[in-house]
């Protein structure tokens, strides 16, 4: 199904709806053990599973309460897919959770910061959420740096809360209120 999601653009990036043409790239990225280390899946990640995820996401015209919506992060200068960002709206649509995953070779260039900040803009200004959340493994220092660079505030650790198959780990929680984001953007 073709989605009606309007791409989000930054100086260097386009965040667009995924298509089935992205399945092999998604499977490759999620199969990387350094990428999967702190995520909700195990490597290797089969292409068929990537296709199923993309079909599920593209069955909706955009973010909807109670569902995750995945966007490809594409570099504007060469149309290269660098990774993806995702947004999940709470059932009442007032809270959004965001996440990001980049290929290992795309890390260290502030693409995750740029893409996630644009997704937060979209959540706050277009979807009018009250709060944006993110969570990560407490040892995922690089992701924590991205969140803090954007302005997320650490809110604590949920002990033994995050399960991947039969293994449990702690979950570091981060939050950002819409009024904080708007104030930050007004200073930019």
Structure, explained:
The protein has 188 residues and is of the alpha+beta class. The protein has one domain (8-187): Aminopeptidase, CATH 3.40.630. The chain is built from six helices and eight strands. It has helices at 23-31, 33-36, 47-58, 111-126, 141-150, 178-187, and strands at residues 8-9, 13-17, 68-75, 80-89, 95-102, 131-136, 153-164, 167-177. Strands 1-2-3-4-5-6-8-7 form an eight-stranded mixed sheet, sandwiched between helices. The termini are far apart.
Which CATH class?
Answer: Alpha Beta
- The first-to-last residue Cα distance is 38 Å
Q: Strand pairing plus helix content: what structural class?
A: alpha+beta
> What's the mean pLDDT score?
94
**How many helix segments?**
6
CATH superfamily: Gcn5-related N-acetyltransferase (GNAT)
**Shape, please?**
globular
Rg from C-alpha positions?
A: 16 Å
Estimate the strand proportion.
Answer: 25-35%
Proportion of residues in helical segments: 25-40%
Question: Order of strands in the sheet with the most strands?
Answer: 1-2-3-4-5-6-8-7
Order of helices and strands: EEHHHEEEHEHEEH
Query: What CATH architecture label applies?
Result: 3-Layer(aba) Sandwich
């Amino acid at each position: 199904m073709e989605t009606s999601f309007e791409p989000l653009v930054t100086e260097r990036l386009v965040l667009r709806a995924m298509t089935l043409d992205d399945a092999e790239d998604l499977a490759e990225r999620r199969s990387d053990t350094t990428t999967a280390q702190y995520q909700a899946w195990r490597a290797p990640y089969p292409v068929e599973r990537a296709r199923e995820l993309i079909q599920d996401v593209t069955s909706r015209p955009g973010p909807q309460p109670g569902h995750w919506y995945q966007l490809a992060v594409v570099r504007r200068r060469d149309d290269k897919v660098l990774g993806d960002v995702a947004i999940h709206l709470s059932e009442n649509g007032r809270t959004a959770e965001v996440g990001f995953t980049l290929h290992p070779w795309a890390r260290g260039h502030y693409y995750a910061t740029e893409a996630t900040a644009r997704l937060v803009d979209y959540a706050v200004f277009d979807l009018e959420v009250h709060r944006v959340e993110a969570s990560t493994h407490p040892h995922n220092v690089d992701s924590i740096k991205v969140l803090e660079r954007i302005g997320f505030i650490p809110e604590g650790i949920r002990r033994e809360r995050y399960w991947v198959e039969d293994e449990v780990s702690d979950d570091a929680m981060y939050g950002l209120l819409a009024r904080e984001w708007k104030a930050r953007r007004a200073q930019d």
